[in-house]
UniProtKB/TrEMBL annotation:
Keywords linked to the UniProt accession: Cytoplasm, Pyridoxine biosynthesis, Transferase
Reactions it catalyzes: 3-amino-2-oxopropyl phosphate + 1-deoxy-D-xylulose 5-phosphate = pyridoxine 5'-phosphate + phosphate + 2 H2O + H(+)
Phylogenetic lineage: Bacteria, Pseudomonadati, Pseudomonadota, Alphaproteobacteria, Hyphomicrobiales
Name of this protein: Pyridoxine 5'-phosphate synthase
Oligomer status and interactors: Homooctamer; tetramer of dimers.
Assigned EC number: 2.6.99.2
Pathway as given in its UniProt record: Cofactor biosynthesis; pyridoxine 5'-phosphate biosynthesis; pyridoxine 5'-phosphate from D-erythrose 4-phosphate: step 5/5
Signal peptide: none
Length: 258
C-alpha cells in the first residue's frame, strides 16, 4: 500500500534528564529540549516516566504537557500508579513498555500475548480517558495479534535487535531482522493498527526504516542527544528529519527491500 504521508519524528528527551540528574539541579532542562525539538521540526515528544524516576520525573511530564505544543507520547510500565498519572496528565498517547529496574534501557518488547489479562483493564482505563494506546512489541505475529485483540491503537515495533546486528557487523542476521520488521509492519497495518518504530535508530537505520510504507512514526532519543554533543540538538533533529524524508521518498521499492 502506498503511503503519501510523511513519517513523523517523535523526539525522546529522556537522556537530557539523565544528564541533569547526573549532576543534580535543574539543568539541562528536558522541557527546553522539547521546545527546541519543536522549533527544529519534531512532530512529537516522547518521555518515559520510569518507576524509579532515573531520568524523567513527574514534574517533567506535567511541564511537557503544559508547555510544549506538540503531541506527548508518555512511555510507561503498565502499572496502576502509571495509569493513574497518565489519566491525570492526559497525554496524546501512552506507549506501554516492559520495565526492569536493573536494565539500562528497555531491552525487549512487551509480552502482550502473555500479559493480556493484566494489560486489558489498564488499556481500557487509558482509552476511557481519551488517550491513544501504543504497545512496544517485537515484530512477532502473536504479539501483533494480541495488540489487536487488546484494542490498542498503535504498535511500536522494537527495532533494537536489527540496529544492534548492524552495529556489530552481523549483517545476515540484520537482514533477517529487517525482513521481520517489514512483515510485522504489514501484518499490523492489515489488522488496523498504526505502526511506529523505535529503539537504537540512527540516521542510516531511520532512513531505511522510513522507506517501509506502513511505518507512520519513528521515536528516537539517545542517538539524537548523543549527536547533540557534537552538532547541537536542533541540527541533529533537522538531519534526522532529512534522513527520514529521504527514506520515505524511496517508498516501498528498493529502499525498503535493499
Amino acid at each position: 500500500m502506498e503511503r503519501a504521508l510523511p513519517v513523523r519524528l517523535g523526539v525522546n528527551v529522556d537522556h537530557v534528564a539523565t544528564l541533569r540528574n547526573a549532576r543534580g539541579g535543574a539543568l539541562p532542562d528536558p522541557v527546553r529540549a522539547a521546545q527546541l525539538a519543536k522549533a527544529a521540526g519534531a512532530d512529537g515528544i516522547t518521555a518515559h516516566l520510569r518507576e524509579d524516576r532515573r531520568h524523567i520525573r513527574d514534574a517533567d511530564m506535567e511541564r511537557l504537557k503544559a508547555e510544549v505544543d506538540l503531541p506527548l507520547n508518555f512511555e510507561m510500565a503498565c502499572t496502576e500508579e502509571m495509569v493513574a498519572i497518565a489519566r491525570r496528565i492526559g497525554p496524546h498517547a501512552c506507549c506501554l513498555v516492559p520495565e526492569k529496574r536493573q536494565e539500562r534501557t528497555t531491552e525487549g518488547g512487551l509480552d502482550a500475548a502473555g500479559q493480556a489479562h493484566e494489560l486489558r483493564p489498564r488499556i481500557a482505563l487509558l482509552k476511557e480517558a481519551g488517550i491513544r494506546v501504543s504497545l512496544f512489541i517485537a515484530a512477532e505475529p502473536a504479539q501483533i495479534a494480541a495488540a489487536r485483540a487488546l484494542e490498542a491503537d498503535i504498535v511500536e515495533l522494537h527495532t533494537g535487535a536489527w540496529c544492534d546486528a548492524i552495529a556489530e557487523g552481523r549483517f545476515s542476521e540484520a537482514e533477517a531482522e529487517f525482513a521481520r520488521l517489514v512483515a510485522g509492519a504489514r501484518e499490523a497495518e492489515t489488522l488496523g493498527l498504526e505502526v511506529h518504530g523505535g529503539h537504537g535508530l540512527d540516521y542510516a537505520t531511520a532512513e531505511r526504516l522510513a522507506a517501509v510504507p506502513e511505518i507512520a512514526e519513528l521515536n528516537i532519543g539517545h542517538f539524537l542527544v548523543g549527536e547533540a554533543v557534537f552538532v547541537g540538538l536542533a541540527q541533529s533533529i533537522r538531519a534526522m528529519k532529512e534522513a527520514i524524508a529521504r527514506g520515505r521518498a524511496q517508498g516501498s521499492g528498493a529502499g525498503a527491500a535493499a
